[in-house]
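As agreed, record copied across for absentees:
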Amino acid sequence: MSRQHFDALDFKILEMLSHNARKPFLEIARETNVSGAAIHQRIQKLTASGIIKGFETIIDPAAVGYETCAYIGFILNDSTKFDEVVNRLKEIPEVVDCHFTTGTYDIFAKIFARNNAHLLEIIHKKLRTELGRTETLISFKEEFKRPIPILAENMD
């Protein structure tokens, strides 16, 4: 996607929504001294242009029974099989992120499992591939996660 041109109001809206996607439009309007209708229009424009990809609810995985977080790197024997592996990963609901990468791994995926035994079951029954090999890293704890910084100087 080509880089979009933003003004100060766009940056402020993006910054506010990146920290709280449920922030009411009227509250954004009050904080930016702009009408609610103008804020609504701007957010529609940002969404239609693909800048805002959507709004999400972030659920604590452990609170709903997913105690183990792991990252799995795939080293493919044949890089033309990327789409095949990605399509197989899409079929596994516990896989929540998937990236095509440089370096050691061709594909890097994030997975949540109920516990280590469930992770092992997923690896053995769903992730085994004749297309290459995998390496698994278990995350003990996520220290922090934050939205990307919304800075005017990054958006020239």
Notes: The radius of gyration is 20 Å. Residues 63 and 127 are 25 Å apart (CA to CA). Strands lie at 68-76, 95-100, 107-113, 132-139.
